[in-house]
Amino acid sequence: MSYLLQQAFRSGKFVFGFSIFATILLIVFIYPLVIPDPPLEIIGQGTFFEPGIYVNVYDSIRAPTYILNLRGAAANRIASRLNQADRLAMKEWLMAGGGIAEDEIDIEDTALLLGLWVNHYSPTKNVPGMTNARRNYFARLDISLRGLLSTEGVSVAVKNPDTGVLEETSFIAQSDYANINQVANVRVLPLGTDNFGRDMLTQLVAATRVSLIIGFIAGLLATLIGLALGLLGGYIGGIVDDVIMFITNLFIVIPSFVLLILISFSIGQEKRGAITVALVIGLTSWVWTARAVRSQVISLRNRDHVNLSKLSGHSIGYIIVSDIFPYIASYVVMAFILQISSGILAEAGLSILGLGPRTTEFPTLGLMMNWAMIYQAQILGKWWAYLPVLIIIALITFSMNLMNTGLDQIFNPALRE
Amino acid sequence: MKRKSNNVCLKAEGLTKVFGFGRRKTLAVDQVDLTLYEGEVISIVGESGSGKTTLAKMLLGLISVTEGEIYFKGQKRDISTHRKKKEYWKNIQAIFQDPFSSYNIFRKIDAVLLDCIHMKGGKRLPHDKKVAMMAEACSFVNLKFEELTNKYPFELSGGQMQRLMIARIFLLKPTILLADEPTSMIDACSRATILDMLMKLRDEIGMTVIFITHDIGLAYYVSDKVYIMEKGKFVESGTADQVILNPTQPYTQRLLSDVPKIYEEWDLSTV
Question: Considering CB atoms only, which of A311, A327, A414 is closest to B89?
Answer without folding.
Answer: A311
